[in-house]
Amino acid sequence: MKGINPTFLIALPALILGIVITPLFHITLSESVYVFCALFLFATTLHFILKLKQTQSTISALAVFFLFVSLGNLLFSLSDPKNQKSHYTHRIQNQKPENNFYLRIEEKLRPAFYAARFVVTVTQIDTKTTSGKLILNIEKDSASPLLSLHVDDQILVKTALAEIIPPRNPFQFDYQEYLRKAGIYHQITTSTPEVYLIKRGPNSLSGYADALRTKLNTDLNEFAFSKDAKAVLNALLLGQRQELSTTLRDDYANAGVMHILAVSGLHVGILMLVLQFLLKPIGNYRYARLLRTLLIIAVIWIFAFITGLSPSVLRAATMFTFIQLGTLLHQRQAGFNALLTSAVILLVINPSLIYEVGFQLSYAAVFAIMWLYPKLEPLWNPKNKILRYYWQLIAVSISAQLGVLPLSLYYFHQFPGLFLIANIVVLPALGFLLIYGLILLMLAAAGILPEFIASFYNTLLNTLNQFVSTLAQFDALLFKNIYFSIPLVILSYLLLFFMVQLAQKKNFINLVGSLTVLIAFPLSLALIEYNQATPALYIHHLYKTSLFTYRSADLDYTFYTEKNQQVPENLIANFKSEQRIAEMYHEELKPIFKVNESYILRIDSLGVYDLKAFKPDYIVLSQSPKINLERVLKRFPNTRIIADGSNYKSYVDRWESTCLKKKIPFHNTYEKGFYKIE
Question: What is the pTM (predicted TM-score) of this model?
Answer without folding.
Answer: 0.85
